[in-house]
Structures are given as C-alpha cells and as structure tokens.
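Technical note accompanying the year-one report. For the benefit of new consortium partners, we illustrate the data format agreed upon in the data management plan: each record pairs a sequence with a structure-token string. No post-processing was applied to the example shown here.
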Amino acid sequence: MMEVAYSLVLPVFGVVVVGYVAARFGWFSDSATDGLDTFVFNFAIPALLFRALANTDIPDVLPWGLWGSYYGGILIVWAVGIGVAMSVLRRPLKDAIIIGFGGGFSNTVMLGIPIILTAFGEAASVPLFLILAFHGLTVFTICTFLLETAQAAERHDGSAPPSTKQILVDSLKGMARNPLLWALGSGVIFGQTGLTLPLPIDGVLEKLGQAGIPCALFVMGATLSRYEIRRSVGAASQIALFKLMLHPIVVFLLGSYVFTLPVMWLKVATVMAAVPSGVYTFIMANRYAAAPGAASSAVVLTTGLSLLTLSAVLTWALSF
C-alpha cells in the first residue's frame, strides 16, 4: 500500500515543484502565471465541474447518513479551523475561512478516487460516487458565500459598519460573477434533464477539464515562489494537522457512533477524509487573496505528509 501512495502522490508533488522552479528562476513570468490562473479559474475548472455534474444522476434514495458523516465532518473541521485561525493565529476572517477550508477539503479527484478504488475495488464505487455527487456543489457554494461576505465587509471600511443586508447583497453579486458556481449549478440542472452532451461539445469540455488540475498545480507552485514559506508555517501547519488527523477522526466518529454506516461506507468516508488538501484550496485562496501563501504551503505540506498518514489510515481500513 505504501507503493500505491507513493505512485499517486509523487506526480502531484512533482508538478508543483516544476511550477515553483520555473517561476523562481524566471523561466515563467508573473504575468504568465496570472494568465494561466485566469484560464484555470474561468475555463478549465468550470469545464471539469460542469461535465462531471452533467453526467451525474441524483440517487432515488438519498444517503443522509453518509452525507451527514462526511459533510458534517467537513463543516465541523471548517468551523473549528476558522475559530483557531482567528483566535490563535490572529488571522482576519477571510484568511481564516481559507485556513478552515483547507483543513476539511480533500483532493478527491487526483488522489481520493484512484486510492480508494485501488484499495477497495468496485465495492467502494457506490459510497464513493455518493460522496462526490454533491461535493463540489456543496463545499464551493458555502466557501464562495463566506469569502464574498467577508470581502464585502472589508470593502466597507468607513466609520459606519455596513448593514447585514448590504453585505448579503454584495456577496450575492460576487457569487453571481463566479464561473465555478455557474458551472456547478448549470451542470446539476443539465444532468437532471436526461439529455446527453453532444459529442463535439463533450469533447471540448473534456479537453479543457483535463488541463485544469495539472495547470492548477503548476500555478500553485509558481505562486508559491512569491511567498516566504516560513511566514505561513503556522497556518500551513494548522491546515495539515486538521486535514490529516482531525478530519478523518471526526468523520470516523460520526460514521461509527452517530449514523452507524455500513463497514465499507465507513472505510470509504474515513479514507477520503484522510486524503491531503485539494488544489482547489489554493485556487480559492488565490482568487480572493485570502492567505494564498498558507494555502499553497499547506497543499504541498499535506501532500508530502500524506505519504505516511494516508498509508496508516489505509492499513487500518484494510485490516478488517
């Protein structure tokens, strides 16, 4: 199992390193990095999300226990992470949202899916699909709303604080301009029409989507070169601690003692929670200028440490 972890994690880490080296030595300019970031956020990732949801069917019987265990774990870790980031690290709300987000958001596509299917086979496909069915839609919508709300509050820096209504209106306007949410929402709607994407359109979306994750990893590495990693050690360490230890523990406890999941479902949910922070943590941080250095460092740190922690969780899951 250690060999499986190495073979899946090292290529991810390698793309980040290539981006970092390219930017650090001036082979990839800041303007090129910003341009590639725009492509990732406005085109590649939306195409990936839309196509995934357009081909997803909502199950007839909704698995509330599985969703309560996994999504409940995310929300608990997120809330605690925000509180710790603000009270202990003295970070502003917008930074704290990203720090909390990184502690509960897994790299589902690049690591979660292949690791779980390799470890457990087809028996894991049903709970895996059910976790992923609304993962992006749920988590990104909440994260975007919180970041837009915090950003709207920051813009009103006069003596009179903005009203709750004004902050809400500003945050909703910002969400309406977010291509990720448009992709998620339209993907769900199209998926429930029963229609099939025309092959040429599906092909275009597939090609754009395939470029999304590698380009995002490269941009993450390039952007990481702009920041002094030692200034983000505290926040990145918090994210790593929450993501690799607290998140799987919370999900396991919820699945075992609150919702009493079937054994295979419990294994899949716990292992998915033990997967390192996803690159979307950095994408959201960079887009909203909310602790991008900490987010970049945390994705790299959790990916590297997961070679040990994820292998330990997998060993436990395969033992019964």
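Partners are asked to follow this layout when depositing records. The chain has one domain: 2-317.
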